[in-house]
Amino acid sequence: MTETMFNVSPLGGQVYDGAISIADYTTRHRSGLRGAQARSLLIEAGWSVPAHPNEILQTEDRGFVMALSQREFWLLEPTRDALSISISTTAVDKDVYPLFCQSSHCWLVVTGELKSSMMAKLCGVDLSDNAFATGTVAQTQMALINCIIARHEMAGHDVFSLFVDHSLAEYALEVLLDARDEFV
Amino acid sequence: MKILTCPLNGPRNISEFVYGGQVKRMPDTATASDREWAAYVFYEETNIGVVLEWWLHSPSSYWFIAERHNATDEIIRTFPADELFTQRVDFSSPEAPL
């Protein structure tokens, strides 16, 4: 077992309020599982698991399961602190392996009615309400960097959760702040 | 911008994809001669026509296969690799002589 990395965010955990708000959730807990038995393992553990890849589903009082393929799932727990967790570097079960998304990706949460319009400046995928419904995930690019975009509800708000590589966190925040300028 | 359809993620800008080479039949790793193995690793078909190619959707690290005409650049279809590769290949080799 080893203590997780990145329990301190390179973005400082800041919230940028406005008509479109951007919050740094990098220090919130997330982990992942990959493997043929990952789905059944999560269901056994009491998680609600999406039926298809590129979907996200909430489990009451715990968090979200994001399906990135038939055998890859990320667990997002916005109310849990990343400081307290430990991660295993070995298989957690037969054919199921941990994914270190806490260490690999930063997490930004975007809220605001015009967030789809703002994202249209940065991303080639149509993220408007009609084309990108709540519970949908897009693995794509934003401002030319790889990005996972999930639309879900959190604390009563419709949000986009964005996951980009840690090494690109500052760049991602900068382009988002620049893109929202005309909407603030 | 060209659009390529990823079997996992749907239509995406071509800038999200990386070409991964032709799909070739791998010779038996236990019995292939050096010549056969070198041909598999280094040689590419150069005939004009419909070819099978590996492509990677970079944001999701998803490898799939595309059927493409290499002169017209028409993509006939894209599909998951497990349509062609149905079982795991064991790369264990015989013990080296002492």
Quick structural summary:
The complex is a heterodimer of chains A (184) and B (98). By secondary structure, chain A is α+β, with helices and mostly antiparallel strands.
Rg on CA atoms of chain B, Å: 16 Å
Q: How many domain regions of chain A?
A: 1
CATH topology of chain B: Folate-binding fold
The fraction of residues assigned to DSSP E strands of chain B is 35-45%
> In one word, what is the shape of chain A?
globular
**What is the count of DSSP helices of chain B, taking H or I runs of 4+ residues?**
1
Mean pLDDT of chain B: 92
The SS-based structural class of chain B is mainly beta
Head-to-tail CA distance between termini of chain A: 45 Å
Output the strand order for the largest sheet of chain B: 3-4-5-6
Give the overall pLDDT of chain A as a whole number: 91
Spell out the helices and strands of chain A N to C. EEEEHEEEEEHEHEEEH
Beta fraction of chain A: 35-45%
CATH homologous superfamily name of chain A?
Answer: Probable tRNA modification gtpase trme, domain 1
CATH fold node name of chain A: Gyrase A, domain 2
Please give the CATH class of chain A. Alpha Beta
* CATH class category of chain B: Alpha Beta
The largest sheet of chain A is:
6 strands, antiparallel
Contiguous low-pLDDT stretches of chain A (5 residues minimum) are: none
